[in-house]
Amino acid sequence: MPQQPSDGGDDLGANDEIIPFKDEGEQEEKSSESVSDSTDLNDIKSSLVNEGESSQSNSASEGNKQLVAGQNYGGSSKDRGSKKVPPAVEGSKTDTATKTPGFGSIPILHGDLHVPYPPNGSMVPSSMKRFIDIAANFLRPADYLDHLEDQVQTNKVSVVHPAGHPNPLAQLTLMYNNDHFPPGTTPPPHLAPPGSPLELDPKTGMPRPRHPGEMPPIYPPLPGQMGQIHHPMEVYTQVQWRNYWDAKRFQQPGQPVYPMTTAAFRGAYPAALTVNTANMTRFGHSAIPHHPGMTITGIPHSAIVTTPGAKQDLQQQNNDREVPTICLISPYRQKSEKQKPQKTPHIKKPLNAFMLYMKEMRAKVVAECTLKESAAINQILGRRWHALTREEQAKYYELARKERQLHMQLYPGWSARDNYAVHGKKKKRKRDKSQGDNSEASNPKKCRARFGLDQQHHWCKPCRRKKKMH
DNA sequence: TGTCCTTTGAAGTAC
DNA sequence: GTACTTCAAAGGACA
């Protein structure tokens, strides 16, 4: 069972002037609903084209606006792409931004990203904005992160793993490097509000890690480790993950928690996924040769600064396994990808309605019946699927439809045929239906015998087809 | 280590 | 247009 929030968890945002991130996400989702999919994607694409536009010449306030917008990518792309006056909803967001200008603790997949207040008179480095953008959406293709590497190095922004945290990955802090300050100085601790998680440790000069009792709600790491991106559904924003996890946390008995799919996440896909489809962005990280000196996430090692206490742990961790600085993989695919790393990356088929249903219900069935064998579980799930009402099934058909729609938008040239006998991989054995006694298609009389001519609506499709033919 | 099993649905090929 | 095949997920079983 994933980690539950600690006692002090929900104090996040009370005194820390932290942006109510979930609310923002809700706003973003609402606003994105009024925009067509294609519009979203085009906007995102255009924003990516203008990727280099953000500069340090932005005023701090403008930078702050971007920080806030950047937390919700759908909105930020529009904001970056034009200078139009934000609509009413955006206005309220701006008010929030003025009050809480994007600094604080941003939930990310493996924990929180701490964004310290800028030093006195200091501009917000564009790299920091971009990093937040990435962290908030927690998945960008490596080519975008390549770009980020330059940004980070140029703008002297670091990622800090606070010492003493049981899981250094659970808390990341974005730091202004000392280069932004007069020589020999460190960021003034007073810049962080007293008691804030951003408050600097006077001894280390680093942001003070929270004590265990004052941890913000830690959204559990997705199971497994880094895998591939080969399905658009694997791209979720932190808002989505939080909402999903919140739904899980507060799930009532018998109340389903629907999987994180496109249905609720339109406009949330990272921009770069929609471009450069000829290279790795279609195939995921494993297809990308890692830069020497870069983490698996594409964040340069040079940009990761550790406090003395955390350094050893991190080194050990990096030695033991290539742990992502920010978890970048779908909860759905991580485990299997970890166990069966794909040697021939490819874009996978979007999941159909039944597959989505299986995803959601499998764990429940496993828990109920103690069976572990997937074949048996799938039989049960198949029966349950048929026991669902049309309305219940319709939800999954709709989710599947949106998955396909998004898949088509993300990979316009993709065909299911591309995955037939993927890259010389041995074809699956054809099932000999002529001998299979469980194949209704092989025995068109089966449904007729079971249900009779009066109840042909119960017949399976193959049997109905056979009936038509005869 | 790789394939099979088992489910449904989508999409492909073959005729 | 119809029939058939493949592949999506999952993980234990098995060659």
Automatic annotation (TrEMBL):
DNA-binding region positions on the chain: 347-415
Keyword hit for Transcription regulation: yes
Listed Basic and acidic residues bias regions: 19-32
Keyword Ribosomal protein: no
Gene3D superfamilies membership: High mobility group box domain, TCF3-CBD (Catenin binding domain)
InterPro entries on file: Catenin-bd_sf, CTNNB1-bd_N, HMG_box_dom, HMG_box_dom_sf, TCF/LEF
Biased composition (Polar residues): 33-64
Domain of life assignment: Eukaryota
Keywords associated with the record: Activator, DNA-binding, Nucleus, Transcription, Transcription regulation, Wnt signaling pathway
Domain HMG box: 347-415
Basic residues: compositionally biased ranges: 423-432
Primary location group: nucleus
Biased composition (Pro residues): 184-196
Disordered: annotated span: 1-103, 182-208, 419-448
Subcellular location: Nucleus
Family: Belongs to the TCF/LEF family.
Name of this protein: Transcription factor 7-like protein isoform X1
Natural source organism: Saccoglossus kowalevskii
Gene name tied to this protein: tcf7l
